């Protein structure tokens, strides 16, 4: 009989901890190798974690809702399926705490319905944990230069301190410019007024880790960027006709479902090339003009929102864009994304129109400086001018495109010129591009 420890996996070099969001198996269950065992949430992705071995799950050491460091043992598996089964540890029990008394197999109880502290049990605030739980390399550099990570504002996800932040701080010591590159860190959102009280019959649940991080990120973005939104109506009739004409041939050749979004991504990349400031980031008093065109696509999940990134979209054909888009969206919904697949976006597109929304004012995905929202694509009566100069009413396929932009860097005229360019690209889309 052999015992196999199941550790909290490290889902990327910068990931220092993870939260067990859900156990998919209970103590006593027989599991196969690579069968999904539990779900985790990190500051980058939600993911299903497969079993490292076949056998019987005999111990659950970390309950749902608990956050622990990577490589912490969260469960144990006996490879001999006839092994005795001890009871699961209570949810949130310290790692290594044995089950109280042997008992019939039970699942670790969720703490989702009870108030719990967000953290790893050491009393640190959310902000302190995020800043100090950086990569080993960042912690080493900080220690060598006598820098307290808790005092550094980070440009990573949720304010995590990156190597670039530390190196910039060291290089700028004593300089007149602010030493921190990137966006400031912010603690978990705290209401500035009195907290609402639950009424009789109300249900009180803590936010999931993903919802906490979305909440932090959205409030941080509002505080960081001077948001302005511009809206254009785009006539997609030409795209609709090309899509209808070429769809069967395209899907037979590529094996991919063709939506309107690849056309929009292609036109957007052309626009970013034409207007580099829209593909930039603000770093203190500096502007970083990105030379990569990495397009984030917001994907709505039942449990939150995630933005996988199509890397080097400018180098992809329409088939390549479609394949990347469909693959990332499918794996996002299946919790199979890797951390690097949600990093390094330079511009984001969100598509609330799939739910019927006509238009919106999306919040910028930091540290980017703009985000484009696509409203519902629908047929509308429009007045168009014929070749003879006479006006006629025609049925056209249209949608509202909204661009939220950071007015610290992008002026309204530039934002409108960018949207006008994207509009023209779509309204004159070349059939040969498909």
Give the arrangement of secondary structure elements:
Blueprint (H helix, E strand, L loop, with lengths): L2 E5 L9 E7 L6 E2 L4 E6 L4 E5 L4 E6 L6 E3 L3 E6 L47 H7 L3 H9 L18 H9 L37 H16 L2 E9 L1 H18 L6 H14 L5 E4 L2 E4 L5 E3 L1 E3 L2 E3 L2 E2 L7 H16 L13 E4 L19 E5 L3 E8 L5 E16 L5 H16 L7
Parallel strand pairs: 12-16, 16-17
Antiparallel strand pairs: 1-8, 2-4, 2-7, 3-6, 4-5, 6-8, 9-19, 10-11, 12-15, 13-14, 17-19, 18-19
Helix pairs in contact: 6-7, 6-8
Q: How far apart lie the N and C ends?
A: 59 Å
Number of helices, counting only DSSP H or I runs of 4 residues or more: 8
Q: Report the principal-axis shape.
A: globular
CATH superfamily of the largest domain: Chloramphenicol acetyltransferase-like domain
Q: How are helices and strands ordered from N to C?
A: EEEEEEEEHHHHEHHEEEEEEHEEEEH
- For this structure, the CATH topology of the largest domain is Chloramphenicol Acetyltransferase
Strand elements, count = 19
Work out the helicity level. 10-25%
Mean pLDDT over the full residue set: 82
**What's the gyration radius in Å?**
25 Å
Low-confidence blocks of residues: 87-120, 122-127, 174-187
The total domain count is 3
| Helix/strand/pairing category | alpha+beta
CATH architecture of the largest domain: 2-Layer Sandwich
How is the biggest beta sheet arranged?
Answer: 7 strands, mixed
